[in-house]
Design brief:
This is Solute-binding protein family 3/N-terminal domain-containing protein. Keywords: Signal. With about 250 residues, the protein is of the alpha/beta class. It contains seven helices and twelve strands. The termini are far apart.
Length: about 250
Amino acid sequence: MAQLALVMMVCLMWLSQPARADTLVLSVPDTQYPPYVVEADGRMQGILLDPLIDAAERAGIRLEFQLLPELRSQRMLERGLIDGRMESPSWIAQPELYLWTTFMLPMRDVLVYHQQHKPESETDDALANYEIVTHLGYAYPELQPWFDQGQAARIDKISERNMLLALLDPNISRFGRAAVMEQGVAGWYLDNTAELQKQPLVFGERLFGCAMMGFQLSNTPEIKALLERLNQHMSVDVDSVGRCPQ
């Protein structure tokens, strides 16, 4: 009898667990990434997430978002503790080993200037000896040769807000200063940060990197089946959102 009771208890515990059959657990940056990923009104949203959430509702798939640091999310994906994470195929080794959402958005890195420091043209010579404000821990392949050769000085900041505020510092090098940021993210902070509103900060036109951002998922039959259902119910024309230049 004791053995039967134990078996029944295990069965009841198993039945009480939340169903995972139609659930995708996806991680997004714990710092968020507005306007692409934003936590507002107690829910995750943003222009990268909204089409996925809409498609999931149509497909009868539950999306569970977890706010995680980037490196931790990568380890958790490798260990099977989450199903996917926000990522670009351009930023990881062997992207072909994973599944990817068909809906992706181009992340375009440009320079943001204080108006008085924007050169007439953004040639290498015009930007020589500039101070380039960067995000701590981020890699910038297009600019790294400048940093390595001493053509530009790298100044790390811990957030996009601090990067933009650094452009208002009165003690800027006489050569000039610019912040390298994803264009949509910079625009969101300029519109939604009180200290930055109405400041003479302007965008450059030269592209300093572009990558398609979506979700990297474990390559398993179960997740592949869910991803196919998700893609079938995607109402956004994935070809209309733009692509990075080849």
